[in-house]
UniProtKB/TrEMBL annotation:
Transmembrane segments: none annotated. It holds the Pfam family FlK. SUPFAM superfamilies: Thioesterase/thiol ester dehydrase-isomerase. Gene3D superfamilies: Hotdog Thioesterase. InterPro entries: FlK, FlK-like_dom, HotDog_dom_sf. It comes from the Bacteria. Residues 83-183 form the Fluoroacetyl-CoA-specific thioesterase-like domain. This is Fluoroacetyl-CoA-specific thioesterase-like domain-containing protein.
Amino acid sequence: MEQQPGGGETHVEQVIWHGDPDGELTVGIARRDGDVVTIRLRDGDRIVADVRLRSGPKRRPAPHDLLRTELGPGATCTRTFVVTEDATTDHVPGAVPVLSTPSLIAFLEDTAADVLRPGFGPATASLGTWIGVRHTGPAQAGDHVLVTAVLAEVRGRRYLFDVEATVGGRPIGDGQVAQTLISLA
């Protein structure tokens, strides 16, 4: 943390990593909103990372009783999904149908939710509330997609996950998704 004139603090509130740089990085302010500034790192036209800085004390996560057990960073789940015909898209004429991006996102979000589900308290569910993913490679009908979700950050009822999808060891997607716990009561 860095002290500001007048005794305030500035801290990194969130880092969203979009991908490794290949060349020289440029840095600029992407957004200002009150006490929050988002700094964007770019490699040419490609976004590499967004870093959100907040002035003032760190926000403390609000306690909740929606999970029977506490989960912390590092909690993980790995699942395998078989690509079905209804999970593909054929929007490229003459090309073989491949896994659609919405279906890939559903696989990533469902795996992240599976980290949380075993600990749900009574009348608890989770919703996907944020996605930042890249769909980097194809998967065809019948392929087995291995998806891993690793809990990266907990803030109150919001759980941020690093996610990755591969087919036969070949990456087809990665990024982050957030799940937020809700009460059904």
